[in-house]
Amino acid sequence: MSHSEFIFLGSRSRYSVLLQRTLHHHLFTPSILVEDVLKKYDLKTVEYLIGSSSKVTTKAIVLGMIAQLKEGKFFLEDLTGFVEMDMNECTFQNGYYTENCFILAEGRYEDGIFRLNSVGPPPGEDAVISRYSNSQKPHY
Questions:
Q1: Contacts 24+ apart (CB under 8 A), 54-57
Q2: From residue 111, how far is each of 9, 48, 86, 127 by CA, in Å?
Q3: Would you say residue 140 lies in a domain?
Q4: CA distance 105 to 89
Q5: How many whole angstroms separate alpha carbon 107 and alpha carbon 118?
Q6: pTM across the whole model
Q7: Low pLDDT (below 70) residues in the chain
Q8: Which CATH number fits the domain that encloses residue 24?
Q9: Residue 87's pLDDT is what?
């Protein structure tokens, strides 16, 4: 088991919580009302990018962890796999980004590389919503 695999296995539960909170965020929940004019985003996985042909021409947003699997090359990793990132033309939202931190990455997948346009932190969640969500889970 590589160092990166070990790190990500330890971060599985953290990833699951962040994924759940991101999917609850109003920008990622599907619209049920016709009057809902807010633009909604569809979260993709690394597996979706890799499983596509050699190119995803529309912008894809992926929640994943920054990993440096090879010297000088950064990868985006989630529970379904990892993909090399090109951050040369990327704009960063306010935040502190290090290896092993989770990000929302937006970009296009071309020739086996995820070319990022924008990187930001996962959205936060109101404490009231978090407490309500946690209170709905069964306590064994």
A1: 54/110, 54/111, 54/112, 55/108, 55/109, 55/110, 55/111, 56/108, 56/109, 56/110, 57/108
A2: 28, 14, 11, 41
A3: no
A4: 13
A5: 7
A6: 0.79
A7: 1-10, 33-38, 53-57, 129-140
A8: 2.40.50.140
A9: 93
